[in-house]
Structure formats: C-alpha cells, structure tokens
Design a protein that fits this description.
The chain is mainly alpha-helical. The chain has helices at residues 2-20, 22-31, 142-153, 157-170, 173-197, 223-239, 247-267, 273-290, 294-303, 307-323, 330-355, 375-410, 418-421, 425-453, and strands at 34-36, 60-62, 86-87, 90-91, 137-139. The chain has a three-stranded antiparallel β-sheet with strand order 1-5-2. Mean pLDDT is 77; it is low at 39-61 and 63-124.
C-alpha cells in the first residue's frame, strides 16, 4: 500500500508539472501557427523563416502595445514576468538592434511594417493595470486567430452586456434571471479562488501573450473556462423540457462553446492547461450544487418580503470579502461588477413579481415551440435590443460619472488621477457595485416597462 501511495503521489506530481508547465502552452501556440517574430529583415519584411513557404508566403506580424512600466503594486507576480528573451542579441519587443561598437539601440521607425498593415491587430490591454506588452508574434493561421479571439470574447464584458439582455428581452426572462444567478456564483467563487491560491499565469517567454487585458490577475482557475462551461450547459439544462428543440443539438452546441473558450485561453497565452482543466471541473462542481437549489433561490428572490434588503446586504458583504483577499488587480473590479449586476437583476425580479411585469407563463403551456422567423419578429427583436442597449449604456455612463467623484469626495481621496483613484477599495467597490447594480435593475425592470409603454413587449 505504501508503494501504491508513493506511486500516486509521483503520478500527481508529474501531471502537475506537465499540465502547469508553460512549454505546453507554447507548444499549443506553435501548433496553431502562432510563433515569436524574428527581428525584421530588409525593406520591412517580417517573414518568419519557419513560417514562410517556398513561395515566400508571409504570416501576419503583430506587436502588442508597449505602455509605460507599471507602478509598484506590492510585488505581485514579479517572478512571473521575466525580462524579454533575446534573439541574436536583440530583445523581443525592444526598440531595435544595437549599432556596431556598443552604441545605444537605434530608434524603431514609427511607420507600420508592410506585413502588419493589413493584419489583425494585437489584443487590447486594460486601461488601469498598465501592463507591458509582450514580444512580437507572427500569426500563421488567421482563421484560428479570429476563431480563438471570438472564443475569448465569450468570457468578456462586451459579451455579457449584450448576451444577457438579449436573452431577457427577446427569448425567456425566466431562464435568463436563473442563468445570471448561476453565472454570478460561478464567477465570484472563481475570482476569489484565484486570489486565495495565487498561482501566476504562464511566464513569457516561452509563452506568447496575445492578450494582456487580465495579465495582472492570477491564473488558477481559469474563470473564462468556468463561465465557458457554466453558461452553455446551464442554458441547456434550464431549457430542457421548457423549449422544444433537438436536445442532442443543444448538448453539442454547449460542448463546442465550452471547448472553444477553453482552447482560446491557451492560444492567448493566459492560462496553463491545468488552469483550464481546473476551471472546467470547478464550474461543474458549482453547477452540481447550485442547479438543484435554483427553484429555492428564485422563489426567495421573487416572493420574500425583505428579499431586496437581503440581496443587497449579501452581495455587498461578498464584495467586501473579496476586496480583502489580495492587493489590487483587475479581479477586484470585475468581482464587484459581477456582484452588482447579480444584485440588480435579483432585485428587479422581485419588483417584476410585485407589479406583474414579465410574469412567468403557466406550466400547462409548456413546452414552448420556437416561433416562426418573420420580418416582424426580427424587427421587433432588433428594436427591443437597440433601445434597451442604449438605455443601459446611458445608465452606465451617468452612474460612472457620478459615483467616482462622489466616492472620492466622501472618502477624501484625490480625484486628479482617476486611474489611481479607481484602484482604491473605497472608490472601486461603490462605483462598480452601484453602477452595475443599477444596470442590472434597469435591464430587467425599467427597460421592460419602457417596452410596455412603446408597445414593444
């Protein structure tokens, strides 16, 4: 038995080292045609010798933005950010090759290279964390680049702020509000677990950082993989028996969604294989626990007299807890944003129940059949979505403009540098919580009331 136990420990250590090693991520990137760029050749040619064929076919040379060096953040993840690798004595992403005789590097020309003019641009970076850009890279397969860019967007704010409202306004509010409850708990537990475990993201090099938006966060588990598992499979389980459609097709679509998001995190260089696997398994565990309790949670939100007070207190307490786990990172703001959205949606559900807005259909009319696709249906759905999104964006802009200066004034924090002020818990927590709490409330209560007024229900 002792030998068997020792064998299991060795196997687990081997699996950990293999699945968590950055070389596996770099190998996957090379397999998908993503390689580090060599120094530019003459006449601006940035072909990679290994990527060009006999006919001289070029890949696409991309260079992420290189913002100023980040300010001191308490030493977070310093060991995960080694200096750029050098090729032939030239650091990737540096200004240019050194001149003979040891002179300073020649300044890089400001014009675009020929190979980058029509190619896909680098991933965006977060405006708050000032992360340094990575080395240049060559996109050898544009199809995979765009496919995995789509996959990673399925876990970003732009997707959430369009997908959830569209589902609430045009498809099924009952499924939508329950889906958001699951999403809030999955993302909250994932973000908190990151700040507790504190495993760094894959180091670069050898990994190529195609996306650096979330690079200041820890890597274990992958919350993109968690949301990419929770959202499609929750949709499948919440619509089974409620809507008539081929269930095999629904399960296949959910699986493709999940796989695409997970592989995109490896392609972007944001997570190790172990981060992604842990995110999927962690999300499945949360679904197993929360899915059976959804009836109880939803009924409480709808019918309990003091549900709004309990909802706001619970989500605010969860936010305060998450903000004490570690120093500043984009994870803190995202967590407050998620909690605020969840609180707003839950409170709106309670007021909808009180005033008879978006009532749940009786059980005897189930299951629903998908409606026939007509011009009138498409037009009304587009109008609802367009008007609703405009209202949400206006709400977000107004609340953002009001809450940040107000929080700075209340807590006597200098407001001359908004970027630094928003990194303070006293500013970021109320700003995110109040702004996105109101966005969630407007999405599920105010906008449907507006639709009733405009006869667009």
């Amino acid at each position: 038995m002792g030998l068997e136990a020792g064998g299991w420990r060795r196997l687990l250590r081997y699996l950990y080292r293999y699945l968590h090693h950055p070389d596996q991520v770099a190998r996957f990137q090379r397999l998908c045609g993503l390689v580090a760029a060599h120094p530019p050749l003459s006449n601006g040619d940035c072909r990679h010798p290994g990527a060009a064929g006999a006919g001289g076919e070029r890949g696409t040379c991309c260079r992420p933005e290189e913002p100023p060096s980040p300010p001191d953040s308490g030493g977070q993840e310093e060991e995960a950010r080694p200096p750029p690798a050098k090729e032939n004595g030239v650091a990737c992403g540096s200004a240019g090759p050194a001149r003979p005789g040891g002179d300073a590097p020649a300044p890089a020309p400001r014009r675009r290279r020929e190979g980058a003019a029509a190619g896909p641009r680098p991933r965006r970076r977060n405006s708050l964390n000032e992360e340094a850009g990575g080395a240049e890279f060559v996109v050898g397969n544009r199809l995979l680049y765009y496919l995995f860019s789509l996959g990673t967007e399925l876990g970003n704010e732009l997707f959430y702020i369009t997908f959830f409202p569209f589902w609430l306004w045009n498809i099924d509010p009952y499924v939508g509000r329950r889906l958001i409850v699951i999403w809030v708990w999955v993302m909250y537990l994932g973000q908190c677990t990151k700040d507790i475990i504190r495993w760094p993201r894959p180091r670069s090099p050898p990994v190529i950082k195609v996306e650096i938006f979330y690079d200041s966060e820890y890597g274990m588990p992958s919350t993109h993989a968690m949301s990419g598992t929770a959202i499609p499979f929750s949709l499948f389980f919440l619509t089974v028996g409620r809507w008539q459609y081929p269930y095999a097709f629904g399960l296949l679509l959910a699986s493709i969604w999940c796989i695409l998001v997970c592989l995109s995190r490896l392609y972007m260089g944001m997570h190790s294989i172990l981060d992604v696997i842990a995110g999927v398994l962690y999300s499945i565990l949360i679904l197993v626990i929360f899915h059976p309790a959804m009836d109880l949670i939803d009924n409480f939100n709808l019918t309990y007299k003091y549900a709004p007070l309990f909802i706001i207190s619970l989500h605010l307490g969860m936010g305060l807890f998450s903000f004490t786990l570690d120093t500043w990172s984009t994870s803190r703001g995202d967590t407050a944003e998620i909690l605020g959205t969840g609180a707003g949606i839950a409170c709106a559900s309670h007021f909808n129940y009180m005033f008879g807005i978006l009532p749940d259909p009786p059980l005897d009319v189930l299951p629903f059949s998908p409606p026939a696709i007509t011009i009138n249906l498409i037009t009304r759905a587009f109008l609802r979505f367009a008007i609703g999104v405009v209202v949400l964006l206006l709400t977000r802009a107004v609340l953002k403009a009001c809450t940040i200066p107000l929080a700075c004034k209340i807590f006597r924090i200098p407001c001359t540098d908004i970027r630094q002020a928003r990194k303070r818990m006293e500013v970021e927590l109320p700003y995110r919580y109040m702004t996105y709490g109101m966005v969630g409330f407007v999405a599920l209560f105010v906008v449907p009331c507006l639709f009733n007024y405009l006869n667009l229900s």
